[in-house]
From TrEMBL:
It comes from the Bacteria. This is Glutamate mutase. InterPro entries: MutL (IPR006230). Pfam families: MutL.
Amino acid sequence: MTPDRLAGATVCLDVGSAWTKAVLVRSDGAIHGFAEHPTTTADVLAGVDAAVGAVTAAARTGEEPTVLASSSAGGGLRLVVIGTEGLAATEAGHRVARSAGARVVHVHVGALSAEDVRVVRGHRPGALLLMGGVDGDDPSVLLHNAGRLARARVRYPIVLAGNAAARDDAHALLRATGRTVVVCDNVAPEVGTVVAEPARRAVADVFAGHVIGARGPSAAPRFRRMVQLATPDAVSRGAAELARVTGGRVLLVDVGSATTAVHLAGPDGEARCTVEGDLGMRSAAQGVLTEGQAEGLVDPVEADLLAPAVERMAAEPGWVPDDAGGAAEDRRIAALAAAVAVRRHLAAGPPDVGAADVVVLSGGVFRQRDHGGLRAVVATLRADRALAPVLDGARIVVDNDIVLGPAGLLAADGRVDLAEALLQDHVLG
């Protein structure tokens, strides 16, 4: 390889919740190398430097490469729900979290005690959903809980979506001690009614700030300067470029360790993204199995067979299967995550979404070069009648080289020609 081809090369970096991945893109748009390193949660920059160092070591250009980075180091948003009635709080919490990048990790019902606040903290939430009765109900529990959270000085953003009559007073209590509060319409305004969308939008906004990794060492100034986009935004931009290049509608499913995102893009600027915080290959693997059963995609026998593998996936975020059986289980979980996520994406969108021209499967699991195994993933999606409106007639391709995010980073940096070359050679070629 001539040095001039590597001069001006760019490292496109994605810092995920489990793995940090680096792609070295030459100045002519070709990929020169790929490296990955476990994301180092204690010091995220250690993993970043290791991945960048590994991918540039063979280049030997004598110059520091440009680094463009995206991040989803924060993973899915852990949501704690605080309400006054168990079934209502549980149902509302899960409906608010769905397609907003969140997953419910704890539901508390009733007045909070000091011990209850400690339990909430123990679940390491990224946000709280504070409910409190139907409109016109007794507001005393909502106001008590707002006061308790205010005095406890919890640092998590609070989405306040309770009794309309007490909402302003609850907000004032929380703001009096400087809590971060987003006020929404009541998520349960009447008995038996859930109005999730206002609170879901608020939770999605919290997730957008959380996913980059805004706490602890990942908030280091060099990391903040390095990261141009959150990973979902980089991949969305890559999907938009692919739609422009093909002149058709693109549906992209990005299956990650902690989340699964679905992006819909059209050549006319159409763009929509949903992120599922309870569907993923590692920390959210249990959610895939649970939701796969709920959706009728997994029967009890298969669920029992997959359960030990899912337990290991959830317990060991950096685990990589080293045999054919483990790789097959990985692909099965990926197929189920993709199918459930696309179902939810379609349910959350307009009723007549229309067919896609190109469907792209992306994520680390799809770097497996087992073409027979990957055909089984595609077959799972093709066989799902719920997905027929968008998949019928579509070309399904696999992003083996994980270039949709890099293409999005390059396009956002103004290098559309390099982004197009990546997509043509590694997705459409």
